[in-house]
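Quick question: what would this complex look like in 3D?
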Amino acid sequence: MTNPLSPQALDLSEAVVGGNAGAYCYELGRRLQPIVRSLTGPGVRQTLEILQAELPDLTAHSVESGSRAFDWTVPDEWTIRDAYIETAAGERIVDFRDNPLHVVGYSEPVDTWLDLSDLQQYLYSRPDMPEAIPYVTSYYRRRWGFCLRDAQRRDLAPGKYRVVIDSSLAPGQLDYGELILPGRSRDEVFLSTYICHPNMANNELSGPVVTTALARWLMSQDDRHYTYRIVFVPETIGSLVYLSRNLDILRSRVVAGFNVTCIGDERTYSFLPSRAGDTVSDRVARHVLQHLAPDHRRYTWLDRGSDERQYCAPGIDLPIATIMRSKYGEYPEYHTSMDDFGPVVTADGLGGGFRAVQRAIAILERDCVPQVTCLGEPQLGKRDLYPDLSCRGSAGQVRGMMNMISYCDGTRSLLQIAELIDEPFEMLFDLLQPLIEARLIRILGWDVASGSE
Amino acid sequence: MTNPLSPQALDLSEAVVGGNAGAYCYELGRRLQPIVRSLTGPGVRQTLEILQAELPDLTAHSVESGSRAFDWTVPDEWTIRDAYIETAAGERIVDFRDNPLHVVGYSEPVDTWLDLSDLQQYLYSRPDMPEAIPYVTSYYRRRWGFCLRDAQRRDLAPGKYRVVIDSSLAPGQLDYGELILPGRSRDEVFLSTYICHPNMANNELSGPVVTTALARWLMSQDDRHYTYRIVFVPETIGSLVYLSRNLDILRSRVVAGFNVTCIGDERTYSFLPSRAGDTVSDRVARHVLQHLAPDHRRYTWLDRGSDERQYCAPGIDLPIATIMRSKYGEYPEYHTSMDDFGPVVTADGLGGGFRAVQRAIAILERDCVPQVTCLGEPQLGKRDLYPDLSCRGSAGQVRGMMNMISYCDGTRSLLQIAELIDEPFEMLFDLLQPLIEARLIRILGWDVASGSE
Amino acid sequence: MTNPLSPQALDLSEAVVGGNAGAYCYELGRRLQPIVRSLTGPGVRQTLEILQAELPDLTAHSVESGSRAFDWTVPDEWTIRDAYIETAAGERIVDFRDNPLHVVGYSEPVDTWLDLSDLQQYLYSRPDMPEAIPYVTSYYRRRWGFCLRDAQRRDLAPGKYRVVIDSSLAPGQLDYGELILPGRSRDEVFLSTYICHPNMANNELSGPVVTTALARWLMSQDDRHYTYRIVFVPETIGSLVYLSRNLDILRSRVVAGFNVTCIGDERTYSFLPSRAGDTVSDRVARHVLQHLAPDHRRYTWLDRGSDERQYCAPGIDLPIATIMRSKYGEYPEYHTSMDDFGPVVTADGLGGGFRAVQRAIAILERDCVPQVTCLGEPQLGKRDLYPDLSCRGSAGQVRGMMNMISYCDGTRSLLQIAELIDEPFEMLFDLLQPLIEARLIRILGWDVASGSE
């Protein structure tokens, strides 16, 4: 029943990830960007290999095409080798090698000549964003298609075009990565992120790179209280596969967790709650964002759209909340080639996202139920914890400490007290230490999230 | 455990009331208008006879004058044959035959000559509405009086006037009508309306005519789940008499109900809650009005003024809420001769009121507790229930369905889900049907209002 | 089970305090003002002697210096005989005899010559209020100092000054007063006020004088339901001493109570809740102020600063709320010589404070659980309790009575009903009496605060 991560033991610096978490995430994201990812296929495996170099204990898992995951079936594996549109003059005017977004994800193979008028039904563009290549997939119905800038599409000359997609859709496997970082407790904090989108920066790569940095930070902590379960999965089918294979253990052990997505730009912070809305994950995330970014955006469960749809589904009901920067669907570059490093995702943006989730995890590790050991207010003056001269103004200096003490009644956790008096958890945690040392406060229980003090 | 009114069985059309409920109500109201109604007397019986022609199973009941009803006593029966004010020249300047409002309700007989100055204390008019004849009654204290336009009153020449009221107040009876429409369940939905006011249109006739249309609609439904208990009573003393004679059965069987009054104009919709405020009747009524007329007026229990005062009194506590158009006391023509068909009450106004209560009843019949049958989100795509091409915009099309499914966890009724996601119950009920057919949703219980699933 | 203070027995007049409570308080305050009070010492004893002349049953208690009170120790007793600053020319430019605020409370003795530059560190003034002498104390660390007008301080000529403080700090005692007014019940209402500040009017003297007036009013009531425990203590250490010596009895008997402080000016009314925030004391105080002064200021527990810090501390948790006029720390003259009778504290201000607490106590004595004895609404007309002529407007006259009756269901206290329908408790209590006489209402229980009906 000791402090699982004492304030000394819990190192919130970013030294463990090379001195600056944002720069680390940015560099890793740039390395992952060229890989041609989809729901399945060699791109997912290449991505996991790069992550394993960062996280040696990350294990790769796979399930065969056709495997069931609740109501779903793992689709055939998709391999894409080449894809282009060529003019009669032999010029490749749309080429998958320039940008993997040019081909509709999961396109079946094709090699044919089409008149422009016939070709149009296979083309996808965004008239409202004429310079952006849109991101389109068709995982569960066979079709093919090309995505291109609308400006280019409008300039296509009438005539014949050759369309080539050299892909295969065949039984294979779905891959995902899993990292378990054991703590003193079997109770788990769960982090999930996805690795199934091509090169987009905020809505894809920010998730795995910030999660990798968080994992490296957690690995560097000697004295974790919770066990951390961290997964890199293809979205939806990957989380369903993972859930269906680990449901009992997840339901019995996971006490908190976060879905890590869209966490790399600088424009805002966002919060999306679990289905229940009031789990410890929700409360911790709200508290962190309230003090880190009071003007952050709060979404509701009705705005959901990522793997919380599975993790919080009826009968599964894991306590998974989401801390984001600009949420999917809510920024103009979303699901286009313009969601890129540099203009959208930055080292500062990624670093801010990293620190938000890190603070949430630190609160989970540090929350406790404090109780004042004396009746009446403690006399801080005789212990040099209180200004001894009663004059106008000085009383304000210890207002936060006295407010905290006044609620240390053994019925509230420090996070609940921080919520009540509207002060940052971290400040109260620091104020608590000298009071514990002075034996004015005792800790009735750590491990508040687990409910097993 | 089957759907009490399957979507096929529950016919919400207005064919059953002649194709247009509003027109039906308007015509019936015009036929009832000339009858000289009061708390008791031949007018109430004539009214019930006309209603029995529409509702053959409506039974007329009576209790004797002097009967006790809780703290009240049924007053003597009042019969009014003639009432007028005549000038010395023999001109009838105020004549009950022109408008029954001209005589104060329950006036005792009189035949005398009075100077204008002496007459004034027996006259009632509305200086603020000089062209309106006010509605005044004195049921429990013997007096007599005339009501007239204030414009006319101001023009009365000094001199003698003959006042004649040919009425009798004598032991007789109090009449009311009761219609029981049995359903598969003994649990009851209770509708009450009153038939004790003279010819006013919104505050009187709209109530019984809309209730009659609702009863005809319910009679046409083969497969009612609930039993419907529908009463036409004089206000206050009539509801007290009905309660005192049926209290045990009402308290043990009534699971929901509505007081039907002031439901015929087009100016607004209004809601007045039960005393408890959160019964299923309140929740259904709020939901219907929120979607039918988002700008409707919400009153509180402190604004009450009709028979909910009895039905929700301490120790009685029936779950009775009130859906209105313009509430009694809240529109300028209230309790005057200007509350008339045409200027105030219209076919469209009556039809809107009919449909509001009809929708409330349909929700009571159809509410259920749905539960998704699979873990994780169901895959709607493979069942052609979901767009299979993931591109911007298409996800929005099934947002309502996915939101509903996400809350089908077996702990909430469909009405609660509709409230949570702020969508109309009817839309969700329709979305639910293909999911039930696809066996993605099962119904844990119907009969939510009764609490006996 | 009888009304503890029947409406006849509870006399809310101010005759008992000489016809005008405000004038009584003002005169008593002026008499107490010249006494040199501090946390301990002869001034406290002189104050108690004057109060004993008003409250013959008030008993003086003392505890020795060095006694423990929870985490605190009673300090040495401080006696101050003289204190001044003298120029080289022998002129006393700052003299404790002019105003006791001139010497820092608990100053140790000194008699020395200092250069002005060396003297400055021992001087306290308020540059923002150049004409005010600030109030400074140093109870728990030995130091000495003088307080003076900043205007005077700026005019001090360079040179030598003699500073003399003829004080002693030696083992002695801490004094407090206690008055028990027995009622029929052993359950107690607790009033606490403090007597440790020098001559300031709102933040000190208003408290003991209003408390004395309240005690005299309570003494005059023959038939108190509750026992009243009223204490006059030095702030903080005095309340801690009192708590530590009476904790079991206080925790088992006190059902409500108020800390009486800062209750003498006319600028506003204020409310500061108990730590729990929803005790009967809080609810009563909020109700009184809502109707007495709808624009009063509502503070939170985080704004606390007086003895509620001890009475509501974790593990003590007495139900003590605070009704004030201008709260400590919130008015410009606070803790300066300008907090004086006349400009700040007035007879009207004191009288208003007296009446607010008096009304709160009267609600505690009179609250009850009423239940209507009949089903349905009672017929008030036949008992001459209701206008018998139904016409526009008259219904409004009894709206309050009917609203009250509609909630007299035996589950709510009269105070809860007053809160629900937003009417003053006193009005409802008066409306209730004829209904009880008419046997339309019975009282299920008095003694609502105690929870032992």
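Answer marked as accepted. The interface with chain C takes residues 371-372, 374-379, 381-382, 388-392, 395, 399, 402-403, 406-410, 421, 440 of chain A (CB under 8 Å).
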